[in-house]
Amino acid sequence: MDKQRMTRQIVLALCLGVAAGGAQLGIAQAAAAETEDLEAYDLGETVVTATKTKLAEKKVPMSTQVITQKEIKETGAYNVRDVLKTLAGLNVMEAGMTGNMVSIRGMGTSSTLILVDGRRMSGEDSGSTMNVYELNRVNLQDVERIEVIRGSGSGLYGSDAMGGVINIITKKNQKEGGYAGTQLGSRESSVYGGYSTGDVGKLNLNFNYNLTEIRKQDENGDTNMYGPKRYFNFQGNYRFNDHSGLDFGASFLKEQYRSLTLGTTSASDMTEWYDNNRADYHVKYYGFDKKNDYEIQTYYNRLGKESRKRTSSSWQDFDHAKYETFVVEGKNTYRPNTQHTLTYGAEYRKQKAGGTRLGAGASNPYTETYLGMSKTYSSASVESYAAYLQDEWQLSDKLFFVPSIRFDHHESFGGEWSPRAGLTYNLSQNARIKTNYGFGYRAPSIFELYSHMDRNMGRMQVQVWGNSELEAEKSRTFDIGLEAEKGKSTGKLTYFHNKISNMIDSEFLGRFGRAVRYRYVNINKAVMDGVEGEYGYRFDKHWDAKLNFTYLDAKDGNTNARLTGHARMNGLVELNWTDAKPNPWTASLYNMWYKDYLDGEGKNYTYSTTNFVVTKDLNKNTHIYAGVDNLFNKTFSYEDAFSIYGRTWRAGVEFKF
């Protein structure tokens, strides 16, 4: 038996053992449990918070923010990115017209782990595309709430969570009924709907769909990626009894986009088509009793991508890619007494990627021919396994301590320990201090390890070489903050410090004819210091105001130069109104401001945008909304390397039945 096969079997046994251990404890107490009143529990819901357990937000030491379904509804947002854009410490600024950043406290887009119901989704894995499209691929109408964890999450989640975690939790176990809606806007339009069977015996099924058309946005001849996007999913729950059950489901996404790039002559104008397909399948067994909350789940998802580009006279280039993720994990939360809650688990993960952008850099290369063009296609896979342990320790009435540690063994670079500790100290019932210290890491992606990309970019050929000798990026993060509520006011103030070493970046190797060549290397260090502040005040039952700000000093650890892609300061000022009736009107006017945003060419930008949204429940089953973003149409000139969307509008209506 080879070493890798033995490793897989050991980890699978650990995952099964974790869940089985909890299950056996549950079975042993089942007879007694039938006659005892157990704590109310939503059997079908997957709750993944900063501790992988159910805890009040005020008690959790980690800087955590929850966006509820009600808050999502009142934003009138297009997508998850729109919902998150107003949060302190989180930068989801759109990257031109091709996607958006996902940066928490100045950490790079690749340092944020995005989960859907606690599951990783297969996606692009180059340094410039990782996470860029993910927030736009989730059906917002299917979202129950979103949890954002700021600071290293590697102590529980392993690789990719150095900056934090965004967990998008979808609706499940709904009552019988359905909904249908449409939204129109200057950027996109859609029709959507869903239906839930409610409880049919022990079974509950939920179905959702979304059909979206991304509108063409033209900027002096260059456009965004526009076209149709189709989404469908179903989720089910089967209850074996009052204390155990099975969650299962699948989702499917299809994107068919195109973009136009203006050439030096009309004959060199370029059109590119993109066909992307993603599928996700998952199943989870869970159970609980008075002392245990256990689960074991497995899931598989894949993303297939095809692109092709041509001028008016001939095909110029194409790319094919496929990404796959397979995971088996088990977890149990054990409550031995009122002072301790232990959470422990194990995970096996296999990721596979193949494509023409890997060229001959990975395994099993062959020549792929498409539309009369030929490229080399190869693939690679990376396996990892992990185990973790966490204790929620109530040291006293005022002091709550959460230490955790995780060990990951990664096929490409070996083992990595990720300890983390958080502390909440209650100064009073309405005030508390929170502090956290943790280590994190990010494993190099398959693209960064094995890329051999050779892509035609008009008059230039861009080549990006991988590096199989790459080491993992590593981080240390610290934060300390004060939270308080008094009367009609709430506030938070947090200082954070992040330090990254072994940062993976592309190194310029030189020009080779019309080709420019880069290679991934461990070259950079970075240090981020900053302060986040939030304040809210409720004047009366009709009016309330919110404001937040983030100050960020993000520097290159080698040169002390500022890191690009971040504002030195940014914030939000928001005023909200409601008529406070059973079927209310609500209105929000908010201004988002940015000071000294540093772009890739070293230029600073200071600007603000004003936004307005109004919503109305016509009755308990009908909801309408309308909104305008960038009300005063702030834009930048075409000569600037930095751009934002001008004034855009949106409106929608949703019916429940």
SSE layout:
Elements: H1 3-28, H2 30-33, E1 63-67, H3 69-75, H4 80-84, E2 90-91, E3 103-104, E4 112-116, E5 119-120, E6 143-150, H5 154-157, E7 164-170, E8 177-185, E9 188-200, E10 203-214, E11 218-219, E12 222-223, E13 227-241, E14 244-261, E15 270-288, E16 292-310, E17 315-334, E18 340-355, E19 363-370, E20 373-394, E21 399-410, E22 414-428, E23 431-442, H6 446-450, E24 452-457, E25 460-465, E26 473-486, E27 489-512, E28 515-538, E29 543-556, E30 566-578, E31 585-598, E32 604-619, E33 622-629, E34 648-656
Parallel strand pairs: 4-7, 25-28
Antiparallel strand pairs: 1-6, 2-3, 4-5, 6-7, 8-9, 8-34, 9-10, 10-13, 11-12, 13-14, 14-15, 15-16, 16-17, 17-18, 18-20, 19-20, 20-21, 21-22, 22-23, 23-26, 24-25, 26-27, 27-28, 28-29, 29-30, 30-31, 31-32, 32-33, 33-34
